[in-house]
Amino acid sequence: MGKKISFVSSKNRGITLDMLVVKDFFRVNDEKVEFKDVVANENAKNSLVKKGNISIRKEYCKNNTDIICVDGSIAGKLSKNAPEGKRVLIATPYDYQFKAINEYDKGAFKKKNTYKNFTHIIVGSPFEKELLKKCYNTPKSEIIDQVCIPYSWRLNQEEFKKKHYDKYCKHYPMLKGKKILAILLTGELDEDEENPYAEVNWNKIFDNLDEDWIILTNSGKLLENMTHIGYQHRNQFVYSNRTFDTREVLSFADCLVTNSGLYATYFAVRQKPIYCLKYTNCEFEKYMKRKFSNLYIKNVEDIDMTKFSEFTSENEKFCEYFSYDCGENPSAKISEIFE
């Protein structure tokens, strides 16, 4: 009988892209590996559901050994009777991590034990490595650096890029041969909050967009005011949300504007221009405003592709800080841990 590896996600993130990439690697390279997905939501609003999910995760982790997570789903408290095994964290930069570093920089953060029971941590970037050192106790964890996170590695593979670029061009023919500015936004505005992009002067943005560029977005909020753009710019805009997984766009976009620290981290491995757009006032937006103010955009009308198409020294600094290069396959590195 082969190895049994469990992918545990109890923070309402499901089985993530990074987990799927690792799982695919095992399927191709080690057919003896058996998988089990343990998915729950410990952040459920219903207190009884929340309590039940926490209990399920604790009981599972108490009796099982080899585990892969992308967050603190096994938590800091683990039974002393838990069996020996490999518990691997793929340190994926969700917004709670940016909250931790924002609070740390204010001097208002006490180190957490969230990650202390992981035997191995794939940090993926200098940012993650520094975050662990400042904000989390990991006394017995082996920190594995110099490899990017799994989905970043996949994004940078030529076969993956070509497959998804061709798919998008078939569905949206106007993309073919164009440079692509991807504006990918995540999170929801409060119900009583007005759409900050309702009065955007899109003609101003398109006037600074050369004919060889096209905007692709997943944001319905940006779409609301598109009826006012001039006829000459109609073929320079694509809205794609539910048709495909827009994270695939990160593999072939030429410039990214986002409010997602996760998307920015995935894209950083490609060494292309990245900017942060103010939208929901999430922790990543706050972080970028403090640390990379030259890459922070307060108003969407400030998107100026006469400037943003250049890969500046500030872009380079961001990319190098948020991703190691993708020379070594991180999934292969994770596989070695379980040998």
From TrEMBL:
UniProt xrefs under InterPro entries: Glycerophosphate_synth
Pfam families associated with the record: Glyphos_transf (PF04464)
Name assigned to this protein: Uncharacterized protein
The species this protein was found in: Eubacterium ventriosum
GO molecular function, one term: CDP-glycerol glycerophosphotransferase activity
GO CC entries: membrane
